């Protein structure tokens, strides 16, 4: 019961305050001063008005903060998107720079050997994951003048030869495949041998059938011999890293690391025409 009386008193007080405020509003115009009662009421209500003003400012400030927070979240999202875009552009520019350097090296190679043989540039578009150093697929085929047995090189050295051709693609067996065979020479001593791949998945080759009394040492450069007619004479192949005797005891074997980075082939040159295989320039390898 006392609580009900308290609510009634509060409602009555609010009505009286409202009436007083209305009276002050309509009687204030045109007067120079307030009556003593008006002044007392106004002074008494001043703290209440101050509280209402503070509450109103707090609500306004809170609403402004929420709005500002929303804008900051949106701006942060936009900035992250811009940073991601800029990073993508930088990566793309770096990739274009690297591609330009590779193509520049191919062009220089073509210019250097232009009087000895004609080449066609091709891109590697596939390789066997199970035999990474066995075969690669190029984006050029018979429509581009590619035929079987054409040698494939990089500016660093021999890569392999074409073994199958379709209209728009060709398959290349790399010199690291065990089924590959290349007539080769030790550059400084002119000792001949046959270069073949070792085991599937290896990036090394070996020079076999080298007479036992031949001096083979680490660091010697191996080049193509021209024997067999498939590969022009003088193309650098690789460098000897190890020498051992064959089980028969009649020959030596030399492990050879190719100059061409066959693990990361992207663009290659296909030798489509040899003008004069007997006058190829001397080569020093890498």
Automatic annotation (TrEMBL):
Keywords: Cell shape, Coiled coil. Residues 124-271 form the Rod shape-determining protein MreC beta-barrel core domain. It comes from the Bacteria. The keyword Cytoplasm does not apply. GO terms for biological process: regulation of cell shape. The keyword Coiled coil applies. GO terms for cellular component: plasma membrane. InterPro entries: Cell/Rod_1, Cell/Rod_MreC_2, MreC, MreC_beta-barrel_core. Belongs to the MreC family. NCBIfam families: mreC. Involved in formation and maintenance of cell shape. This is Cell shape-determining protein MreC. It comes from Desulforamulus aeronauticus DSM 10349.
